[in-house]
Specification:
It is an enzyme of class 6 (ligase). The protein is α/β, with parallel strands linked by helices. 32% of the residues lie in helices and 21% in strands.
Length: 449
């Protein structure tokens, strides 16, 4: 890592712990900053905060008191999950204090080449594919960011000869100043997280910020099938590498007559790709572009695409039981992701759905339910889901309390040849801390059958 002096003897407030807050606090402490950590969870219940106390870091727990700002901080490092409407964050911004997220710290200390991947859907699959492709090419590579491993932790050990593939959320990208990946990827842009962002414009601006600091030496891989997105990145100085599943883009990635091409060079026949779903073809094109630009050879890329079946919680095949296939798509926290999952299957499907109620309608799912023979709904949106299913003409509509109960109900309904698909179309926070926990419960219950 680069041993920068930027934060030496500076008073810095880290707001919000979890993995990213702990990592940022320890890094800043190592860089010589005077760090104060603030977290809403009481100290007696807060193991992360207790561990930081043992390191000599000041900790304020139990709430987010605005009065903390009177202590003369020069920088705020915010956990991505804390909204900008938080009174402490609002107060800091009104005072003109810079508010960043830990991916900015990761960039500032990183010696390695960085690939930054964002978008509404497909980030995790694309990030994982790029990592596997570079690894298959026998190049040193790390995976980090929103995918689960904190970027500023990885950046401390990644060397100049390494590559960091970083998944980036809009929440993280709102907190960057200098962050600049050598290769940036925007998989797609749709409406999402509008309960966090003040507007769709703010959300899109956050996503496209991944390229705001790029130069002519850098690359931006972008979905050419979205005219709005192409227009919104027109400001970039980076070299644009477009990808398309619908047309030939000779300067980028495309599919023609069952063959995937990179700038006219044949990479792989689509029949050799094992990852299901039309939406995943977009992710594959974006990943191939990033891998090729990173120096991965075609054989390495082909070997990954011929074996990669998906990431955990994203249209993940779990098990076949009594000739019924169970898929875990717990990461589908919006209707767009659930549409993509439903599109991937042509057999009779039992859809397990529901979760946090953000006030939105689910009627846009109706055209995608043609193969759904039964809907089992849970969580805050259960009745909304069932009402939508009734509009769609689904005869079998069942309300249960939890994901756990939905597996038992689905197993009783399923016939040989059916698909059971957990694709909630909602966030998990009404009943579970993360979509991963929700998906793990599903997997456990399926494996108990």
């Amino acid at each position: 890592m680069k041993h920068i002096t930027t934060y030496q003897n500076k008073k810095i407030l880290v707001v919000g712990l979890a993995k990213s807050g702990v990592a940022a606090s320890l890094l800043l402490h190592r860089l010589g900053a005077f760090v104060t950590v603030n977290d809403w969870k009481p100290l007696s219940e807060n193991k992360e905060a207790q561990s930081l106390l043992d390191e000599g870091i000041k900790v304020v727990c139990g709430s987010h008191p605005v009065e903390l700002l009177e202590e003369g901080f020069e920088l705020i490092v915010k956990n991505p999950g804390i909204p900008y409407t938080n009174e402490l964050i609002k107060g800091a911004r009104e005072m003109g204090l810079p508010v960043i997220t830990e991916v900015e710290l990761a960039y500032l200390i990183s010696e390695s080449t960085m690939i930054g991947i964002t978008g509404t859907n497909g980030k995790t699959t694309t990030t994982t594919l790029v990592h596997h492709m570079i690894e298959a090419a026998k190049q040193p590579v790390y995976m980090a960011g929103n995918i689960g491993t904190v970027a500023c932790e990885v950046a401390q050990k990644a060397k100049a000869s390494d590559t960091m593939v970083v998944e980036l959320s809009s929440f993280q990208l709102m907190g960057i100043n200098e962050f600049k990946p050598s290769i940036a990827v925007i998989t797609n842009i749709y409406d999402a997280h509008l309960d966090y962002h003040s507007s769709r414009d703010e959300y899109v601006k956050a996503k496209t910020a991944v390229t705001k600091n790029q130069t002519e030496k850098d690359f931006l891989i972008v979905n050419a099938d979205q005219p709005e997105l192409m227009d919104r990145v027109s400001f970039t100085k980076a070299q644009i590498i477009p990808f398309s599943t619908k047309k030939i883009v000779s300067d980028g990635l495309y599919v023609s007559e069952g063959v995937l091409y990179f700038k006219g060079e044949e990479i792989i026949h689509t029949e050799e790709i094992v990852l299901p779903g039309a939406h995943n073809l977009e992710n594959i094109l974006a990943a191939v572009a990033a891998a090729k630009l990173s120096g991965a050879d075609n054989q390495a890329i082909r070997s990954v695409l011929a074996t990669f079946t998906g990431v955990r919680h994203r249209t993940q095949f779990v098990r076949e039981w009594n000739d019924v296939k169970f898929y875990n798509d717990s990461k589908a926290t919006n209707t767009l992701a659930t549409k993509s999952a439903l599109d991937a299957f042509q057999k009779p499907t039992i859809l397990l759905c529901g979760g946090l109620d953000r006030g939105n309608s689910f009627d846009d799912l109706i055209p995608y339910l043609k193969n759904v023979k039964s809907m089992i709904a849970f969580g805050q949106t259960a009745q909304k889901m069932l009402d939508m299913g009734e509009k769609a003409g689904i005869k079998s509509l069942i309300k249960v309390h939890s994901v756990k109960e939905s597996v038992g109900a689905a197993s009783e309904l399923a016939s040989p040849g059916d698909i059971v698909l957990l694709s909630p179309a909602c966030a998990s926070w009404d009943q579970h801390p993360t979509f991963e926990v929700r998906g793990d419960i599903f997997i456990d219950e399926v494996n108990k059958l």
